[in-house]
Specification:
The complex is a heterodimer of chains A (about 120) and B (about 120). With about 120 residues, chain A is mainly beta. Chain A is about 0% helix and about 55% strand. Chain B is about 0% helix and about 50% strand. In chain B, strands 2, 5, 6, 10, 11 and 12 form a 6-stranded mixed β-sheet that branches. In chain B, strands 3-9-8-7 form a 4-stranded antiparallel β-sheet, with no helix packed on it. The chains are: A mainly beta (about 120), B mainly beta (about 120).
Chain lengths: ~120, ~120
């Protein structure tokens, strides 16, 4: 079946440092990967959509300068949170669209970022 | 813009009792919204519980049901008899299946369901 793995599961970093998280799809192709964030007391919000061999599309309030994304092949994507501060803490999820146009996303377990 | 509202942040239900988690949606940009319930069990990732693409249809999975009501813009989640294993956080979500953005989901804030023995 389709599975999505994310790592690390948890990271604690000092304010002003950076954190890289990875997303791997197993059993199906991740032509596109959607990165979401759930901040404390908030719901999931889309950061960006990454598509292999295409430009990465960032949502309003999120930039490549802050959240650079790499998507080198059909099974792997990574995103870095640069210069992390308190407002960047939360759970980061990667979601991969399933086969066919079903609208379903397969999510990883998430990478939880704590900023000290 | 698009939004999803879940009025209950937390719900506690006794085992074998019925459950309803409310969800309403609003969209100004999506001509044919599709609706989802995702669930996150403790220690696990976010996973799809059920989805409905067409207004008026009902989706069901694992004993849960939800009907896409376009008139009331609602997609309430119901279960006739809950079990302790249903304890989880439930998220209602709105998608744009036909608009070419099937990766972009608008989520509600989630409802934490606790089922007590």
């Amino acid at each position: 079946g389709a599975l999505v793995y994310q790592y690390p599961r948890r990271t604690i970093c000092k304010s002003g440092t950076s954190m890289r998280m990875e997303c791997q799809a197993v059993g199906f192709q991740a032509t596109s990967v959607a990165w979401y964030r759930q901040s404390p007391q908030k719901t999931f919000e889309l950061i960006a959509l990454s598509t292999v061999n295409s430009a990465i599309k960032y949502e309003q309030n999120f930039t490549q300068e802050k959240f650079p994304i790499s998507h080198p092949n059909l099974s792997f994507s990574s995103m870095t949170v640069l210069n992390a501060y308190l407002e960047d803490r939360g759970l980061y999820l990667c979601g991969v669209p399933g086969l066919g146009n079903t609208g379903q996303l397969y999510f990883g377990e998430g990478s939880k970022l704590t900023v000290l | 813009g698009d939004s999803v509202t879940q009025t209950e942040g937390q719900v506690t239900v006794s085992e074998s009792k019925s459950l309803i988690i409310n969800c309403t949606y609003s969209t100004t940009s999506i001509a044919y919204p599709n609706l989802f319930w995702y669930v996150r069990y403790p220690g696990e990732g976010l996973q799809l519980l059920l989805k409905v693409i067409t207004a008026g249809q009902k989706g069901s999975s694992r004993g849960f049901e939800a009907t896409y009501n376009k008139e009331t813009t609602s997609f309430h989640l119901q279960k006739a008899s809950v079990q302790e294993s249903d304890s989880a956080v439930y998220y209602c979500a709105l998608g744009d299946l036909y608009g070419g953005s099937n990766y972009k989901l608008t989520f509600g804030k989630g409802t934490l369901l606790t089922v007590t023995p």
